[in-house]
Specification:
Blueprint: H1 13-26, H2 32-44, E1 48-55, E2 60-67, H3 71-82, H4 92-101, E3 107-110, H5 118-126, E4 130-140, E5 143-152, H6 160-180, H7 193-198, H8 204-214, H9 219-226, H10 230-244, H11 249-257
Helix pairs in contact: 1-2, 8-10, 9-10
């Protein structure tokens, strides 16, 4: 019997089961962000995805920055946003409340274009030629994660059916973000005494990369934070692991906690 009429409108839902399963399989691994972006692009035709974490002390961390058409642009936009423009985000007041007091599941917010400041609109929408976004606020242990799904001029604004589809996927996307990023904002990069001793043979860049990995970042996320190419980050990782005599992240964790 065909039960397609029971699926929420707006998407080919059965076709999304395979990319969703890939996301589930990749939770906690370096491949997760690639799998998540593939799911979001297949589902909603997004051009850009940003994930941030706002903690209770109003500190913002970028967890993921990706722009399909202009890959190198994503990191620059994320740095502008985290440097202070996030306080001009129309959703900032609700994010701050959630970071301080929030609990429960993910909540959905559409773009509030009329509430944007000129600087916010110019730097984060007009310059990268983005026309629409929807956002999910996901309460986490020490604040709130903020998932932003942007559409470019080629796909145009979200239709009502597509917004219904985002709403239908909201609990699943919230759970994926919460589980993968470990329920908490990454901790500062200052090494503890054991970490400092274990990482002392490394160069400054190798040491910083290893600290990002120890704090829960993927290799891709660490590369974005360091503003280097993923291939360069992989080179630093290989050199660091060779100097330390480990071959995996688990080995690095064990060495630094030993």
């Amino acid at each position: 019997m065909n039960n397609a009429r029971h699926w929420p409108r707006g998407l080919d839902w059965p076709a999304l089961m395979a990319p969703l399963a890939t996301c589930l399989d990749a939770l906690g691994d370096d491949d997760f962000e690639t799998a998540l972006l593939a799911l979001l692009r297949a589902a909603f035709g997004i051009e850009q995805c940003m994930i941030f974490a706002l903690d209770r002390d109003d500190r913002l961390t970028c967890l993921l920055a990706a722009n399909e058409r202009q890959p190198r642009l994503a990191g620059r936009l994320a740095r502008l946003y985290t440097a202070g423009l996030y306080r001009e985000d129309p959703n900032y007041p609700s994010l701050k409340r959630l970071a301080t007091h929030g609990a429960g599941g993910a909540t959905l917010a559409q773009m509030h274009e009329d509430a944007m400041s000129p600087a916010y609109r110019r730097h984060l929408f007009a310059f990268p030629e983005l026309v629409d976004k929807v956002s999910l606020a996901v309460p986490i242990e020490d604040g709130v994660a903020y998932l932003n799904l942007y559409r470019g001029e080629a796909r145009g604004r979200y239709s009502d059916a597509e917004l219904d589809a985002v709403e239908a996927l909201r609990p699943t996307l919230g759970a994926l973000v919460r589980r993968h990023y470990g329920l908490a904002r990454p901790t500062p990069l200052t090494p503890g005494p054991r970490e400092a001793r274990a990482l002392s043979p490394l160069s400054q860049r190798e040491r910083t990369l290893c600290l990002y990995l120890l704090r829960g970042h993927t290799l891709k996320g660490a590369a974005q934070a360091l503003d280097i190419a993923p291939s360069t980050a992989d080179t630093y990782r290989k050199r660091a692991y060779a100097k330390l005599g480990v071959s995996t992240k688990a080995g690095l964790v064990a060495l630094c906690n030993g």
